[in-house]
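$ ./design --mode recover --in tokens.txt
reading tokens...
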């Protein structure tokens, strides 16, 4: 497989960032898709198109190589309708200024196609784009026709066997319950970088490294709305590097969006001048209360932002229109 020149790759990475709604969240969300929390065996990622009616889905299944992927597309028009010189579609992996051709995407008369591939060698996390090209072996990709969010796909390995339980003496005293009836706080993310040295292309490592460089970052505590989510809590570490905000957060006791009449929860950054910046949608499943959420968002000028979570009907949410589900415990000014 060929790789593009650095200049072209950098341009493609910027294009992928636009389609990522200017945010990267791994809760993921793990899936941010959440790849770094409870071990998943399969992840489905939707591809988007801003220029055609085509749609696509990337399905990644756990494998020893870090994930076996299959891309399926629906409604792709004839390539020449996108680029008059094009004869076919090509699939690429894009990450951190690098790009790798994955193969030709063949389509039928209805515009439906598919391509299977293994996790791209050397890519920790990556985005996927589909382009219309003159021939299947081109070395430089054109404009994306379909795209995931930036670095949305990640490694997926089979679950490891659970360790054997350790024996407990039968005469050991029973542990006394510590819950006094109050909501349990979300654990504060650790200061240390649990992923070791940051490697380019490693989204989670980049977030950890940025926070560790600032002594672990500031701690932001969030509390739930007294009516909609009285037991919800969140604790985050937040920092700034190179005009990008970095956040690692834990959530506890957050109800499913459907229970509060919403379709999705959205994380926002609130800056002192009153601006509210979209930081990404959160997992709409119980994964939100189990996995750490990693976020990287460009466009921040200072490190004095705080966080807010709203319950929205659908995404994308250009502004916080829904109920304020979680807000800072020490920021009464966030209405």
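writing sequence...
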């Amino acid at each position: 497989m060929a790789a593009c020149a650095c200049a072209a790759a950098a341009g493609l990475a910027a294009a992928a960032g636009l389609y990522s709604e200017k945010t990267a969240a791994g809760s993921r969300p793990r899936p941010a898709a959440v790849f770094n929390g409870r071990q998943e065996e399969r992840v489905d990622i939707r591809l988007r198109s801003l220029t055609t009616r085509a749609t696509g889905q990337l399905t990644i299944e756990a494998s020893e190589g870090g994930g076996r992927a299959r891309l399926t597309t629906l409604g792709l028009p004839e390539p020449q309708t996108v680029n008059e010189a094009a004869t076919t579609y090509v699939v690429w992996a894009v990450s951190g200024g690098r790009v790798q051709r994955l193969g030709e995407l063949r389509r039928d008369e209805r515009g439906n196609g598919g391509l299977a591939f293994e996790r791209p060698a050397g890519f920790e996390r990556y985005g996927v784009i589909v382009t219309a090209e003159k021939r299947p072996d081109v070395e430089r990709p054109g404009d994306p026709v379909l795209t995931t969010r930036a670095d949305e796909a990640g490694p997926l390995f089979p679950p490891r066997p659970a360790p054997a339980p350790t024996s407990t003496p039968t005469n050991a005293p029973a542990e006394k319950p510590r819950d006094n009836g109050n909501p349990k706080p979300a654990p504060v993310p650790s200061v240390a970088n649990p992923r070791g040295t940051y490697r380019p292309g490693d989204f989670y490592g980049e977030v950890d490294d940025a926070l560790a460089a600032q002594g672990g970052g500031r701690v932001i505590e969030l509390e739930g709305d007294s009516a909609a989510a009285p037991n919800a809590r969140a604790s985050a570490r937040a920092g700034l590097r190179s005009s990008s905000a970095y956040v690692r957060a834990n959530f506890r006791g957050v109800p499913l969006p459907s229970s509060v009449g919403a379709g999705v929860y959205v994380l926002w950054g609130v800056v002192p001048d009153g601006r509210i910046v979209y930081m990404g949608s959160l997992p709409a499943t119980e994964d939100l209360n189990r996995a750490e959420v990693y976020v990287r968002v460009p466009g921040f000028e200072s490190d004095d932002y705080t966080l807010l979570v709203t319950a929205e009907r659908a995404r994308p949410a250009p502004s916080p229109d829904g109920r304020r589900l979680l807000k800072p415990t020490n920021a009464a000014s966030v209405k």
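exit 0
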